[in-house]
Each structure stands twice: as C-alpha cells, then as structure tokens.
Amino acid sequence: MAPLGNTFEIAKIVAKYLQNSIEPREQAILDKWLNESEDHRVLFGQICSKSKIDKKLSSYSRIDWEKDYQEFIEKRNRKRTRFVPVRKFLRYAALFAIPLALGASLLFWDSINSVLFSDPVIPPGFSKATLVLADGKTYELNKDSTYTIYEVDGSALKNYQGQISYDTSGLKLSDPSLKLNKLLTNQLFIPRNGEYKLTLVDGTKVWINSETYIEYFVSLEGDKRVVKLQGEAYFEVAHNPAKPFIVELENSKVEVLGTSFNIKAYKDDYYITTTLAEGKVSFSSEAGGENFILNPGQQFELDKRNDIVTRRDVKASLYTSWKDGRFAFQNQRMEDILKTLSRWYDVEIVYEFEKIKDRRFTGDLKRYDDFNKLLKIMEESKLVKFEIEDKKIILKDI
C-alpha cells in the first residue's frame, strides 16, 4: 500500500490539474504516477470524467467537507481490519481535493464501499517505443526511461521524457580499427496506444504516432538523408539543400529540401496521404513516373488499390492536429475516424451495420481524454450509439 501522505499529494495534484493551475513540478509528479501502471491511468480518467463529476455535483452540492473528512479518518482508524485499497482510497482522497477546483462535493461517505464510477474507462496512449540499434541491441523506451547510448560512430543517442535526440559533438569511430561499410540506421517501433518524438542527427524533428515503424539514419554520411516509414509521422525537416530529405513509403516516396508535413501510410489503409504545412515537397509512386509537387495547404492521396494519385487543397491542421494533442475531423467517414482512434486507445471496433461506416462526423476532440468522453461527444451528433464491452467498441444504429 502506498503511503497515505503520497496518496493525498497525488489527490491534490489531480485537483490542481482539473483547476488548470498545475505547476510544471506537479505535472512531472503526475506524469510519473500515470506511467507507473495502467490502473493509475484508468483511475485518473475516472476522476477527470466531466460527465461523472457533473452528476455528483448535482446530487451532492451541500456537504460539510471538514466534518466528512474527520468522519472518514475516524472510520478508517476504527476499522483497520477492513482494508480500503489504495486505488479506492485515492479516488476518494482526490475527490476531497476536487472542491478546491469545483466548489462542491462529489460523494457521501455512506458510499465508501461502492464503486463511484461504474463505466469502463479506456485511457489514452502514452510515450512508449522499442528502439533497435544498428548493431541489433534493443531498448524499451518510455517517458520515464533515461538512456545515453553511444553509436558505433561515436554520436550519443539520448532518451529523455519521451524523446530521442542526438549529440554529435563527439562524432568519431569509437573503434579506429572499425571501418563502416554501410550507412548506420536505427529502427523505432511505436506500438498501438503509444507515441514518441525523435530529433534526428541533422536536427530534423519527427512526431511519431501509434502503430508506426520508422527506420532512420544515424550519421550524416552520404549525399542524401533517407528514412523509411510505415504508419504516421509529422516531420519538421532541417534545411540542407545539399542533402535532399527523402521519406520512403510503401511503393512511393516523398522528397523535400526543408519543410513541415504529415505522412499517413499505414499498411492496412487503402490510402497513403501526405499533407504539407510549410515549404514544398514532391511525391512519386513506383507505378507512375510523374513527380507531383505539393504546396502548403495541399495534400497528395495515393489509392494503393489502383495507384491513382489525387492532389487537393485541404486545411492542413485537420491532418496535423494529433501531434498537438487533438483529433480534428471535418466531414470524415466514421470508419476512418474510429480506425484512427482505435490505434491510439488500442480498442477493437465492431459495426452492427455496414452502413454506419459511411456516416460522416465533424468534431474537435482532445487526444488525451478518456475514450468514453470522446464517444459521448460523438453520440451527441445523433449519428450513432456506442456500447462498450471491455476494450471492444460496438457501434449501433440510432
């Protein structure tokens, strides 16, 4: 069982989070606690569920908090043999702190042995990845793991707070007798329910989404910078006209000199899309010889079934918002939306009727919210109803 003092510290921090007054030091403590276990993330989602809070506020708006707190402590001291799990205790402790943010009570002590939130909670993803070095060594990474790894060429790979970066100040062969016969590349695997950030050795920044594989260069040798991608990533490419930056995809590639763009290229999707935020890129597929030039606010879409490339004007932020903590959809098919969400929340999507897949939804959702909250927002559109069985989401007709 966790120390009582630590439990109340987390509870107070959760309350300040709800109040939007959390400080960086407190956020770091909360992040560490969330990364300790999925149970913590589930409990956090339950406590932060606005719909549940609203219900409790309407029911319990006039409680003497000081009196109830003293009664709780006395009851706990009297009944030491009736152990209250930390999980349940933290929930109540956090709810004692919530009135600081909400100015109202959320529970009666008569319900101390009841479960406050009955709906299953599906927490969002978090920073996690598997790194495979050029020499085959493997590392499991997350927001709390800290590594400094020296590559064969002497560059230092640093993993800190969910991001990999490189320090080339000591760039040299660690073993002078070793001659490299090929360019060094590392591989990064992001699972479902995960994300990660990567700063390449040239300064290029990459935000990597769930269920994504990327192979990237470690050194700056050679006349071009090449990465291989399967999945989704947002790139801010460091400008270097002498070394074109190339992203190799399934049966196609994107080439740039210096720009910001998003690529979505999942193996089980019918389409590969490249959306340009800044700069200029060219897109080409193996099936066709033409290079398509993309300007800011435009998108390429390659239909992998027939190798047809379409270029269109779009609102780029709709396709890049995920890296900034939001999901933005505009008149998008329900099936495509839920495929995106299922990768982040690691859930299975089941449709009772095929016609539901083609219904279209417009909305702006928070990426780090409990999945139940997103589903309730989508239900308000009167397009569909959801039923949750563990981590299976069943879509029902209205």
Describe this structure in words.
- The chain has 398 residues and is α+β, with helices and mostly antiparallel strands.
- It is 26% helix and 33% strand.
- The chain contains 10 helices and 23 strands.
- The protein has helices spanning 4-18, 24-36, 38-47, 50-59, 65-78, 86-97, 99-102, 317-320, 334-345, 371-379; strands at 126-132, 138-142, 147-150, 156-160, 163-167, 185-190, 194-199, 205-208, 212-217, 225-236, 245-249, 252-256, 260-265, 271-278, 281-285, 292-294, 298-303, 308-313, 326-333, 348-351, 360-366, 385-389, 392-396.
- A 6-stranded mixed beta barrel has the order 1-6-9-10-8-7.
- Helix 1 (4-18) crosses helix 6 (86-97), helix 2 packs across helix 3 and helix 3 packs parallel to helix 6.
- It is globular.
- The protein starts with a helix and ends with a strand.
- Residues 1-5, 80-84, 100-118 and 173-180 have low confidence and may be disordered.
Supply database-style keywords:
398 residues; alpha+beta; three-stranded mixed beta sheet; 10 helices; 23 strands; globular; disordered N terminus
Layout of SSEs?
Elements: H1 4-18, H2 24-36, H3 38-47, H4 50-59, H5 65-78, H6 86-97, H7 99-102, E1 126-132, E2 138-142, E3 147-150, E4 156-160, E5 163-167, E6 185-190, E7 194-199, E8 205-208, E9 212-217, E10 225-236, E11 245-249, E12 252-256, E13 260-265, E14 271-278, E15 281-285, E16 292-294, E17 298-303, E18 308-313, H8 317-320, E19 326-333, H9 334-345, E20 348-351, E21 360-366, H10 371-379, E22 385-389, E23 392-396
Parallel strand pairs: 1-7, 5-7, 10-11, 20-23
Antiparallel strand pairs: 1-2, 1-6, 3-4, 4-5, 6-9, 7-8, 8-10, 9-10, 10-13, 11-12, 12-15, 13-14, 14-17, 15-16, 17-18, 19-21, 22-23
